[in-house]
Amino acid sequence: MTELSQPLAKVPRQPLLGRRYTLELRQQMGWSGQALVIGLAVIVGLALSTAILVAAGVPADQLLEEFVGQTLLDAGNFKAVLFQAAPMILVGMAGCLAFRARFWNLGLEGQMIWGGIGAAAVSIFQIGPEALRLPLMMASAIACAMLWTLAPVLLKLRLKVNEVISTLMLNYIAANFLLHLLYGSWKDPRDNFPYSPAFQPFERLPDLFAGYNVAIVIALVIMALAVWFISVSRAGLYLRFVDANPKVASAVGVPVRRMILSTVLLSGALAGVAGFIVSAGQEGRLTQSFYQGYGFSGILIAFLARNNPFAAAVVALLVAMLFVAGRNLQVFYQVPFSMVQLIQAILVICVASSDFFIRHRLRRIQAGEQ
Amino acid sequence: MDLVTYWLGSVPEFAVPFALAALGLIIIERAGVLALGAEGMMLVGALAGIGMQLALGLPGLSMLAAMAAASAVSLLFALMVLLLRINQVIAGLALVFFCQGLTGLLGTLLGWTNRPVSGLQAAELWPLSELPVVGGLFRQNPMVFLTVLIFVAVVWFLNRTRTGLKLRAVGENPQAADAAGLPVLRYRLAAILAGSALMGLAGGFIAVLSTKMWIADMTGGRGWIAIALVIFARWSPWRAFAGALLFGSIEALIPQLAAAGVQLPQYFMLMTPYAVTLAVMVWVAASKRAGASQPGALGEPYVREERR
To answer: How far apart are CA B74 and CA B70, in angstroms?
Structure first.
């Protein structure tokens, strides 16, 4: 380091925007100001997305119709949106819980896969009486997903193994195991396609009435439980301590490790329920790709909602609209489904960037001031 | 015996993407920026390389296009972490998702998916290529030999030049570097651009010279494995090179075993690189050496507080 200690020629520094403005940290920004900045960021993101959609060949005058008109006003599509919102809410909650425990759970997809496998196993091996089959499938989904989550969280707590990498690696392992099952012993004997045999009618999530599936009710009940857990229960209070400062939390007697362990397991359990809902609700069997896209969306929802479960439910509904509109665009305008992921990424980048304007401001330098 | 010969001969082709991506990561992380975006940079490089190869068919130019495209997209990452000071984990993840969406979309819209391209003729390093058993190691794609040269150059740059020393200083202690008059953000920007170019090259190699076509998400987690590799290598280029050879030989073994007619469950074989990565991470963590050589300011945005 000796070379560095030599004095180097001092170059006068140019302040931002040619000396007349300076960047400074903001003390605090009011709620309305924050909402305005985030709202502007979302508008910028939507404008960019619109430009990309138009460039990809969707007529500009059809966009509002496809994304809002079709998804909310068309009865069939609205049912699809609600149906799609159920797993979205669950993975969003899963993201919120894990992030509140300061755990980057990027393994939502792997946990969903194990949820699906657990549910399908109950169906394939015909465990339990018909009336109890659905609850058993859900319990099995939760158990399998929690077991799959146990490894990365224990590795993180015991050995400080980076959970970003470990959960992602476990996703690839789970996906390959799913393919192993679907191309092997769980292949549908009826048509030899690589998906599991179709679930029996009593193993599928029923409609409440007229095409509105019970899935969204399950999701909302679980959301209510998550709200209670985060906002009301003692565990939620502990969790806020852990999130704010794990060392201080430990010093004042919060069981930090146990809190992290149980919260992350809960996060995995919710992802497992999402896997159960997608396979027993939407697909009616275990397919090769039923989980794809949910891992990223769950993280995005939790991030955009700032880990608040109510906000997460709203964002999840919007993401579900995006998914349904994306599928329609795929059919009508041959726009690849990757578009949905690109739009989500652009929105995340815009909203993340907006934080800078909440925390900093430009100030004009008065005459005579340094 | 044949199995070993063919296997050894195919190791470099599988090792090169890991090696180049890990080297790119080391450059960026030595400058103190946590680069989780490797997977995305590799995808961008892969798509750009295939595009150039389909247009002109000159592999050298395709590799340059892969590097340039990854560097260009990395400007977005630089904007996020250097200027806007977004949490580097969020920024890295967002970058990967952005690149996955972008390349998936462009690959389909431009009609570049599943279109085979011609790669490169193998070059021989005579007389080493005539050796029994290990001869195959020296009959390789020219990019393999170039990778070794790139490694030598980067190691020399990082450890033997003044600029390399300054780059490492910026990553170890940006406050001190700033006090010594180094433009911290400019060094970090340069590191991001150069490192991303190498990751793009890794992706371009996979698409143009190895798989010889574009498939959406074709890097299959190799970028994440490269990140684990860098932790395993404790940010040292030559240890990363050795790690890349290890992963390359595991990946190369999968098709060789299948070709030799060894009956193994296919999907369990495909799991092995990820399982080995996990095992390596656990091993490194259990041996408690990981933190020792981590760049001091890794992942911390540099904010000069005097500019209030």
So the answer is: 6
Whether B300 is covered by a domain: the verdict is: no
pLDDT attached to residue A141: 96
Q: Are the C-beta atoms of B24 and B41 separated by less than 8 Å?
A: yes
Q: Does domain A87-334 have CATH number 1.10.8?
A: no
Min Cα–Cα distance to chain B from A214, Å: 31
Rounded distance between C-alpha atoms, residue B33 and residue B298, angstroms: 6
- What are the domain boundaries of chain A? 20-56+335-370, 87-334
B81-85: which pairs have CB atoms within 8 A and are 24 or more residues apart? B81/B33, B81/B192, B81/B301, B82/B33, B82/B185, B82/B188, B82/B189, B82/B192, B82/B301, B83/A356, B83/B185, B84/A352, B84/A353, B84/A355, B84/A356, B85/A356, B85/B301, B85/B303
Joined tokens for residue B52: 């150039």
CATH number at residue B50: 1.10.3470
Which chain A residues are Cβ-neighbours of B102 within 8 angstroms? 338, 342
Q: How many domains does chain B have?
A: 1
Residue B55 forms part of a structural domain:
yes
Question: Which residue of chain A has the CA closest to B306?
Answer: A24
Question: Quick one: pLDDT at residue A134?
Answer: 93
- Judge whether B127 lies within some domain: no
Q: Residue A21 has what DSSP assignment?
A: E
Alpha carbon dihedral B104, B110, B114, B120, in 10-degree steps, equals -110
ipTM of this complex prediction, to 2 decimal places: 0.91
Q: Is B168 on the interface with A (CB under 8 A)?
A: no
Q: Which domain holds residue B161?
A: 2-121+140-293
Out of B80, B101, B305, name the one closest to residue A352 (CB): B80
Q: Over 90: is that where the pLDDT of A72 sits?
A: no
Shortest Cα distance from B293 to chain A (angstroms)? 16
Instruction: Please answer whether residues A229 and A235 qualify as being in contact, where contact means their C-beta atoms are separated by less than 8 angstroms.
Output: yes
Spans of chain B below 70 pLDDT: 1, 288-292, 305-308
The answer, as to whether pTM is greater than 0.80, is: yes
Nearest alpha carbon to residue B197 among B258, B229, B154 = B154
